[in-house]
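Case study 2.
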Amino acid sequence: MRKDGQLYEYEQGFLKDDGRSLGGQNGSRTHFLGRGCPNEDLLTRADRLAEAGKLDEAIAAYQQAITQSPHTVTAYYKLALLHHNRGEIEEAIANFRHVTELDPSNVSSHHNLGVLYFKQGRLSQAEASLRQAVRLDDQYVEAIYTLGRVLLAIGKLDSAAAWLRRCLTLAPDHVKARETLRTCQK
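Prediction:
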């Protein structure tokens, strides 16, 4: 985890804490949880452990936060990120799914699920998750781009091209979207 809160990019999309996951504008845990956070100190400790690279201890602290308060969406979200970065994709998926169950409007979790499903070749699940992310935020460039890639992989070239053009409308300098669109048009 970098100090600015952005986490780990990889080629098929982004798994990161981009502010969308933690409650919009200010990223406060209170807004994110819809109520006060009963285990703020434990979450802060877990964040510091993750930043220090002590992933096993961070995971244990996030799990303890969940044990103390099973509706602590922040802990599930950050657990998912840590599991992803350790290559534990099924665990990451399970935790992102918990987030979407507790907070169905969590656009980043829907996007990240789509990215992980895509990475695993689970294309119909990837498409469904990414479409949900785009329904929740029709300006989310990376979700739109990744949806275009998934549709291309499925063979829905016209639909893929439409989403990639939408991505380029929102982000004209998105090099990967431009390259992927060329692939659709061949």
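The chain has two domains: 9-125, 138-186.
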